[in-house]
Design brief:
RmlC-like_jellyroll, about 45% strand, about 120 residues, mainly beta, RmlC_Cupin_sf, Cupin domain-containing protein, Cupin_2, globular
Amino acid sequence: MESIKIKDKLELINDLWKPKVIAELNGQQVKISKVKGEFVWHDHKDEDELFYILKGKMIMEFRDRKVEVNEGEMIVVPKGVEHRPIAEEEVWMMLFEPQNIKHTGDVKSELTMDNYEKI
């Protein structure tokens, strides 16, 4: 049980769209990531996702609308809802997700990750 310096952990991340695990609790993983550009359209059939923006502004795109999520704000994407995060400039975010979640749902792309590094 020690404090986690999130900014120090973010300085270890060089790759975009490659979340890193910084903590685990109750079957959930707390991840941080740097993102820029567009992610792939995907959903998670059985898992909700929470995105908390630490730095910058992200657009969460849904098939019927777009939601702007600013620094210090969060959004929860319910299971089964197709979505695509977009960041015009580099965004730092924290995610709360179940440990078994698939990064891109059932979609396979060059951004798909099968294992998450712990930092």
